[in-house]
Amino acid sequence: MTDQRGSGFQGLPGIQTRRIAAGSPRGHTLSKLRAACALGLGYLQSRRLIAELQPQAVLGFGGYPSVAPLMAARRRRIRTLLHEQNQVVGRANRLLAARADVIATSFPEVAGLPVGAEERQVLTGNPVRAEIAAVGQQPYPAFDGQALVLLVTGGSQGARAFDELVPDAVARLPRELRQRLTVIQQLRGRDREEVAAIYEQAGVTALLASFFDDMPERLATAHLLICRAGASTIAELAAAGRPALLIPYPFAADDHQRGNAEAFAAAGGGWLVSQREVTVELLSQRLTELFSDPAKLKLAAASARAFARDDAAERLADLVWRQDNGGAGTSYREAAA
Length: 337
Hints:
Elements (H helix, E strand, L loop, with lengths): L28 H25 L3 E4 L6 H9 L3 E6 L6 H7 L4 E4 L15 E3 L6 H6 L12 E5 L7 H12 L3 H6 E6 L5 H11 L2 E5 L5 H7 L2 E4 L3 H10 L3 E3 L9 H11 L3 E3 L7 H12 L2 H13 L5 H13 L7 H5 L1
């Protein structure tokens, strides 16, 4: 069940999609009123759908489209579970956590759970695509011929700040590093020809695109990433075992990307750099330091890999299955076998 933004789920094999009304109660008064009306309508729609579908469990993944179905399920005394992807619990999950039967988390410690909810918290991790997980089964790329690969991503929509910072920072690297470096960068706003000219003048090999549809292959060759710190990004870095300079999106709700980045950095998998404080000079200095110390990158890669939960999807499925069976008995994996 999702709202109009989940239209991309239509047509997935084996998946039935039901659409309900939803809204985020933020912004000015009129926006909040519209959101309240949408949530009320979504609750009525959810009650009808749950009566029709007769689910044995309802699992919410956060966001306001999950509020109405979870509340409707609780009203019918159906077991409810939440999955929180971030280190800081999102607003919708905070609203629902007080009454959920189980709260699955992606980080060992999360901030924002209501008092008493910790006893219902279970660490599962955040599932990632099998193609990404397969990267982690390969060794960290060797520095053959002293080659270096820097992968720069900003999520599905890129990051304008990276367009401005990274090319100029790379151009300031020592010549010896620039001659060995390949930059694979996702661009969002800056003109591609302009960026390509900067790299060419600096003597750096560069592959530039607005979107990469072969991210597993790109991750497999990367020695270091510069990226945001969304929940999926952190999970994929860990699954692939790749170190990263993390620059959290500073306007994310409740600054949750900073919480994700701090947890990953504390585990030794990367380094947190604040977008509000970073400069071209500082970024260039950090890149010089890291690329000049392969042993440090290898250690961070191993720490990133240790942060992964390879069986996150199965752990989550087990939670749903065991709750459905009274918390005991055959696991999802045993039943699937």
